[in-house]
Design goal:
Strand content: over 45%
Number of strands: 11
Oligomer: single chain
Largest sheet: 7 strands, mixed
Structural class: mainly beta
Amino acid sequence: QVQLVESGGGLVQPGGSLRLSCAASGFTVSSYVMSWYRQGVGQERGLVASIIRDELNYADSVKGRFTISRDNDKNTVYLQMDSLKPEDTALYYCKATRLFTEYWGQGTQVTVSL
């Protein structure tokens, strides 16, 4: 059974850091395009970062602050988030894509506030 489970979200102060994890089962993350998306209240879901083999891509709003990585042994994808800002507050989702197949996780909430 295919499953993506995100974890690591929470409440953090501006300037702080969080590391999100996306644990996959039922498929191999190294064979898929793995991405992180986020959706704030009243906003559309948007791409944050993706990893395709060794190619990394980031939204302009997070470049230099967020880092996506993949651990093939653990079949897990991570999103290291540093220098967090209030505008980073959102529900963060993990997505796996290959050809016409895609899987989504249930999301993990990140709140950046004093």
